[in-house]
């Protein structure tokens, strides 16, 4: 009887869907009518990080999300996921 109860409990636990992660994830975004080299300044809510990091942009007003441009598509991730927590704090933030 204990074996049946244990199997029932185990099957119930395995059938329960996992809770969604609260950690922000990465996403892709297409650039309409632009590519990495002709994104107009201030367009698409993007700011180039600096000249040393070509094709890397801050998204939005703050400096929490970094986007990497690959031809006509952006891969955007929170900075800690993109660079890792040990490197992300040294990336310059130009939040103008």
TrEMBL record:
Keywords: Signal. InterPro entries: SCRG1 (IPR028063). It comes from Antrostomus carolinensis. Residues 1-18 form the signal peptide. This is Scrapie-responsive protein 1. Pfam families: SCRG1 (PF15224). GO terms for cellular component: Golgi apparatus; neuron projection terminus.
